[in-house]
Amino acid sequence: MHTSGGKLPMTWYPQAYVAKVSMTNMDMRADPTRGYPGRTYRFYKGPTVFPFGAGFSYTRFNQHLVSAPTTISVPTLHSNLEGNNATTMKKNAVRTKHIKCESLDLNMHIDVKNIGDMDGTHTILIFSIPSYTRMKQLITFEKVYVVAGAQQRVKINMNICKHFSIADEYGIRRIFMGEHKIHVGEDLRHSITFQAP
Fold first, then answer.
1. Pair type for strands 166-167 and 173-176
2. Residue 191: phi, psi to the nearest 5?
3. CA 96 vs CA 16, 54, 102, 162, 192: distances in Å
4. Would you report the helix, strand and coil content of the chain in percent, each value rounded to 5?
5. Please, what are the averages of pLDDT over each run of 10 residues along the chain (197 residues)?
6. How distant is the alpha carbon of residue 91 from its chain centre?
7. Is the entire prediction scored with pTM above 0.70?
């Protein structure tokens, strides 16, 4: 028998949150000075009824990280970032328009094993936490069907510019150099360091 599984695309807040925060207030970032707790899994850090990405299935799955790079060299279009173009490098982050993005793919291989009694689908959620911002963000996801007792190897392809860049306060997309902690769901951890060549 085949079953489906699903993951929540939002955070379910407790009653106290709903009573305190107006439904029309869509500010994302928390503001402690006025007691505003923020919204979404990226900014709200309080208790939840169900967190973003929580799921339900009629079967159970294990995930295992098989392979992923530990260091990525990020080639830029300018030879001297600091001297020639001060707007390129900021707080150890490089503007994506100054990076050779087309050649910057990253592949991860993850084994998903169905350890339950029913066939089912599992959604792999990949999060990144750059060391500079320490802000967790979903960068990609992949859904896989696995029959009961079987294992499926999933290749997840990501582009550094598309999946790992963050918009700064001016809306400019940048990639932070240094360590990025990768979370595959809640149970797998891996670190990748981006460095200028």
1. antiparallel
2. -120, 135
3. 41, 32, 11, 9, 18
4. 15, 45, 40
5. 77 91 89 92 93 89 94 78 47 87 92 94 93 88 95 96 90 92 87 86
6. 21
7. yes
